[in-house]
Amino acid sequence: MNKVPLLSCIALTLVLVANGAPTLPPPTTVLQYLLRDLMEVQNKLKIVSERMKKYELYIPSNTSSIENLQCFTKELNPVAGALKYESKDAQNIQEYINNINVTVNSLMGPEITQCHYASKMRIEGFFKEFVSVCQRFMH
């Protein structure tokens, strides 16, 4: 008799593990995950080569809505590719960049936002701007 509830509990646990959590965290929590990953990339970029520190990225001209976060992530893929040659810690940075892309896509969905860019900024300034935009959306 005790085996049936135990087996049911095990089966339910396996289903949850296989399919993931049933609900998504609220957007503020997702933004907190995004902010954490952005700050990790910022810290790791301190040890990249001088040439990589001069790498310039485009800053979106409009950062008034959360959808504009996709414009920042569009700039990240070339960074991930260039890091292979410029940093000993490239794989960790690439994982964080991948997490950032996944997190922003979970907020926005698959739709691509039309992006307009204001200016170029060195990589360190780009991530500072990205962090400040995320912090603004959290308040």
From TrEMBL:
This is Interleukin-2. Belongs to the IL-2 family. Pfam families: IL2. Cytokine produced by activated CD4-positive helper T-cells and to a lesser extend activated CD8-positive T-cells and natural killer (NK) cells that plays pivotal roles in the immune response and tolerance. Binds to a receptor complex composed of either the high-affinity trimeric IL-2R (IL2RA/CD25, IL2RB/CD122 and IL2RG/CD132) or the low-affinity dimeric IL-2R (IL2RB and IL2RG). Interaction with the receptor leads to oligomerization and conformation changes in the IL-2R subunits resulting in downstream signaling starting with phosphorylation of JAK1 and JAK3. The gene is IL-2. GO terms for cellular component: extracellular space. Keywords: Adaptive immunity, Cytokine, Disulfide bond, Growth factor, Immunity, Secreted, Signal. Its main location: secreted. It comes from the Eukaryota. One of its GO terms (molecular function) is interleukin-2 receptor binding. Residues 1-20 form the signal peptide. It is found in: Secreted. One of its GO terms (biological process) is adaptive immune response. Gene3D superfamilies: 1.20.1250.10.
